[in-house]
User: What shape does this take?
Amino acid sequence: MKKYSFPYHDSLSFLLGLIGLFLVFAASCPARVLAGQAGTSSGKLQREYPPDKLQEVIRQIERKYLGESAEGLMTMQVATRHYTRKMRMQYWSKGKDLFLVTILYPAKDEGISTLKVGKDIWNYLPKVDRVIKIPPSMMGGSWMGSHITNDDLVKESQIADDYTFRLIEDRDGIWVIEALPKPEAAVVWGKMMYEIIMPDLVPRRISYFDEEGKEVRGMKYSDIQEIQGRKIPLSIEVTPLDKPNESTTLRYEKIHFGISLKDDFFSLRNLKKR
Amino acid sequence: MLTLKMAYRNLWRNKRRTGLSILAMVVASSMLMLAIGIINGMISDLITSSTDQYTSHIQISRKGYPDVRDLYQSLDHYQPILDLVRGLPEVTAASARLRSFGLLSFGSNTQAVEMLGIEPPQELKVTTLGRSLIRGKMTSPPGQVVIGDALARKLKAGVGSQLVYVTSAADGSIGNDLLTVAGIFKTGSSHLDGGLALVNLTWLEDVVAYPGHIHEVAIRIKKPDRAPEVAAKIALMADDPSLQVRSWQEILPDIKQALDFSGINILVTLFILYLATGLGIINSFFMIAYERTKEFGLMLSLGMTPREIRWLMVTEATLMGLISMILGGALGLGLLTWFHLHGIDLSAWITPVSYLGATFLPVLHAEFSWQGIVYPLLFLVFTAAGSAYIPALLASKLDPVHAMRRV
Assistant: This one.
């Protein structure tokens, strides 16, 4: 039927068709350009920051509080449904494997100390004058009644090795990095999302996800200060998402980097002495 | 009356025949009683071993506590409920328990444990862990602990060893204290032997900084199978919706299921036992009737009606049944008593079996029940009377001439 034949012969229809085509093109154009821009920009980021470079970023963040060696004072405030308590502690660290912390306050817990050497954790209990090694089955348990686990102390320094990293987004200098466990690594989390303020390498937030991909814990960093040339957030707030209104807040009151400590400072003998 | 007299005389006319029949019935009925007694014994062993070591018959706790065992879901001001329970006539004893989970350490060995704070005298009336003690004493003054033997081996500790207990206290502090091993128990349940430690309630209250709190009231009652009714009664009397009163049938649904299932097995076994006993008795009455064909023929010729013959035989059988009932009852009770008191220990051939947290000791022992005594005996009398009726019917229909000619 004539009505449905190709309308080139009809100049009016041709014109209308042309306008229509243009409209469609114009409407789709910005979207395509935008999509193209996002695509190339992401690709550019990934080219520029390949996974091993991102790993280096994470490693630097891990070492942020530790340095080659460090000494400091911190307070830990734990709020749960049943109690709120504040503890004051002194800590020493060397490299990423050696860590010693002792409670100064409250009096009831004074002198209780934790020593970490590599993947092992010991607690010293002054009341009974005994050292207890945390068995592997209890590594997921709470450290000093807080929302930090023993595993956090041990495995936090392994993250750069155990996970692969991908830059998801660069939000005006805040990098969102996704960390997924390497298949063979024995890890606690199914996924982590970092928000890092670049180029200072200051963490802003870390979200922890379980194996099902559900967010279970958040860590918020705030109060950024410059200490011995490093920009460091002095406050860390840990919130377990399954327990509303509960949190643990760590505040660094004093940090001193580059102190001289021998390896045998981090020994069971010295754990008892502290 | 004449029938009874004749029946009685007939019994003693052929003493050997009567004696053998009675012997068969006595043995059959007493064995049936013993078999039922041993089955009852196995059931009660199952209930006992699953409830007595740890669970008890009824537990009262804060609603939801049993699922999560959270330290804070505790009972405070528990004395009234404890008094209420102890006042009930069905209840033998009730014990308050405080539970904490933590680390028990000796030297370089550390194990995660369930620490149960108890009041030793009351707890020992509720559970039988005290009887499973293999070393040391059951007493738990503050600062002493009784642990399972698998736990002791894992810690490489013995009686007198000084252990450290560490746990998160109720106020968030790190509760820790020393404990001296007073005793070591062995129940055969890997769960208890490998992870349970018993301490004094006040000591544990102190370590977890939670004075005046407990997690459950464990109750022992006189008749364990009536636990659901007693639990319902306690719940009604306590009238506190925040409490949860559970019978062992609820706490250990697996055991209840196993019992229900074995109930079907037992029913089938009992049916076979009764059938075998009944067939034995019927058989012996058929033989008697067959043997006495000539005699019946003579009696019919002399003018006894078939009806009288039938009655005579049934009366004889009933008399024999009654005699067997008395003798069988006596023998059966004797056997039951012996098996109840001593039992037969098969441990030399069979090792103890741990099943669903309950431990079966390979000891055949009998448990009394009125059904297990009365039913077999009544069954005996009725079977005797009933099974005599068929041969009696046949005998009464005999042709006298024909019958008398038989050799």
In short: The mean pLDDT of chain B is 88.
